[in-house]
Design brief:
Structural class: alpha+beta
Radius of gyration: 32 Å
Number of domains: 3
Helix content: 10-25%
Shape: elongated
């Protein structure tokens, strides 16, 4: 063990103040350095770590609590971090609890965003550039909405039924339209792998309008102005199905 001022090492900006060396054949060298002001290439600071290619560990109660590996990964509560920052376990975080701040979800381009209420989500993270969460739930606050109106439930019931997907591991029920029954797939049968399919962009107007008040004349007029009248030359399209079925 050496505890004294010694030679300038690293980039010659630091002076080694202490060096601890193991007794095995390939010893670990733990050192403490202090900036000496000889050069301005690095900040005026101290340097603590291993001079050899070995992990740096921190422990409590004779057990490792944190590790900094030779590859630059930091693990808290694990000795084998699999990302630049690895924190196993879980916790719940709440944003905006009891406050009036409106949080938003925004696309990467910033062109589309949606206002949210109070956000609560559970975290179980391995952070390697993106932060991920296992689940997220948002409250539906009336203060964030306007033009709340009633909806004729019987109209929506004609479009939506409960079901579960064959290929999904989740067994909870979904509520949506079965478009084979509504003949939304156009004649001529668009096929993929021998089976008919429907592009969701084609049925977006129907899905959106099915949530409106179908008895509202003003909404009908706005929808007609935007999407045009019924075109009987193109039957069984999403627009034709919407206008003839919902308003019949």
């Amino acid at each position: 063990m050496i505890i004294s001022r010694s030679i300038d090492i690293l980039d010659a900006c630091y002076t080694r103040m202490m060096s601890l060396t193991g007794s095995n054949t390939t010893p670990v060298q733990f050192q403490i350095h202090v900036h000496n002001g000889n050069r301005a290439t690095t900040a005026n600071a101290t340097w603590i770590g291993n001079a050899t290619n070995n992990d740096l560990r921190f422990g409590v109660n004779n057990s490792t609590s944190m590790i900094l590996t030779t590859t630059g990964r930091l693990g808290l509560g694990t000795t084998s971090p699999s990302a630049p920052l690895h924190v196993p376990g879980s916790n719940s975080l709440v944003f905006g609890a009891g406050g009036t701040t409106v949080y938003r979800l925004r696309t990467e381009s910033g062109a589309t965003e949606s206002a949210l209420g109070q956000i609560t989500y559970s975290v179980a993270g391995i952070f390697g550039g993106y932060i991920a969460c296992t689940a997220m739930a948002m409250t539906s606050d009336r203060r964030l909405k306007r033009n709340i109106q009633s909806c004729l439930l019987e109209r929506i019931k004609r479009l939506t039924i409960p079901f579960t997907f064959r290929i999904s591991k989740r067994k909870d029920k979904k509520y949506d339209a079965v478009f084979d029954d509504g003949r939304v797939v156009p004649f001529g049968d668009i096929k993929r792998n021998g089976e008919p399919y429907q592009q969701y962009r084609d049925i977006t107007p129907m899905r959106a309008f099915s949530k409106y008040d179908h008895g509202n004349i003003e909404r009908k007029q706005r929808f007609y102005k935007r999407h045009g009248p019924i075109d009987n030359s193109k039957p069984y399209t999403a627009s034709w199905f919407l206008k003839t079925f919902l308003w019949s």
